[in-house]
Each structure stands twice: as C-alpha cells, then as structure tokens.
Write a structure and sequence with these properties.
single chain; mainly beta; UDP N-Acetylglucosamine Acyltransferase, domain 1; six-stranded parallel β-sheet; 17 strands; about 30% strand
C-alpha cells in the first residue's frame, strides 16, 4: 500500500523534480505540488517540505550539505538552501544560506543575499547582495 507521503514524492519526480534519494524526503499533505516548479529543482536527502504557502521556483536546490526543512516559505529562482530550518520567510532570486542556518518567521532575503553557515535570523530583511558571516 502506498501512503500519501510517497505519492506526493512520486508526483514531484514525475513532474521532473530531481530527488536523488526519494525515500528520505518528506512532503507534508498540505503542500500544493503545483506551486513547486519542475525546472532544475533538486531536493537532496533528508529534506522536509511543509506548508500550504510554500512556493518553489525554477533552479532551487535544497539540502546539498545537510537536510533542509522548509515550512510556508517562498523561494525565488536559483535559491540555494544548503542545510537548516526555514519558516514563513521569503527568498528572492539567487539568495542562499549555508549549512546549519535557522531562518524563522518574517524574514526577507532579497536578490543574491547570502548567509554563511550557522546563521540565525528572525524578522530580518537583507537587501540585495548582502553577505552575513560568522566571525568569532
């Protein structure tokens, strides 16, 4: 018997989304897969996608370094979230975050804004081309 989780993952694969390890992916039942582009989207092992407001545009890469969890996020073209947790935030074209990031509700990363690994944000706006780094 195929459960709904598996059928959503299979539907994304049939659309053309690249998922190298399908059994490791979790897609919430509230996710509208019609809001996930099939054009050059890659979802790597261990990623979780939740939320009826989730939107994924062409060229998005999720979880290349470690699993990504997104909930109700809008991801523009060529967004790269390498690993971490992302909730109720918007990432415009070519924004990216390093491994271990935590981006909580109310964040906006404008075009080509970047965050290094282990960056945490809440209710933050990053203007275009801003780069956040951790320096101890």
């Amino acid at each position: 018997m195929v459960n709904n989780k598996d059928s959503l993952v299979n539907a994304l694969i049939e659309k053309g989304v690249k998922i190298p390890n399908p059994p490791s992916i979790e897609i919430g039942e509230d996710v509208d897969i019609n809001l996930i582009s099939s054009e050059n989207v890659v979802i790597y092992s261990g990623c979780k996608i939740f939320g009826k407001k989730t939107l994924i545009m062409p060229g998005v890469k999720l979880g290349y370094r470690s699993p990504v969890t997104i909930k109700d996020c809008q991801l523009g073209r060529n967004v790269d979230l390498k690993g971490g947790y992302f909730e109720n935030s918007t990432f415009l074209d070519s924004a990216n975050m390093g491994d271990g990031a935590e981006v909580r509700e109310g964040c906006l990363l404008e075009e080509e804004a970047n965050g290094a690994h282990t960056v945490g944000l809440k209710q933050t706006i990053l203007f275009p081309f801003v780069i956040l780094i951790f320096d101890d």
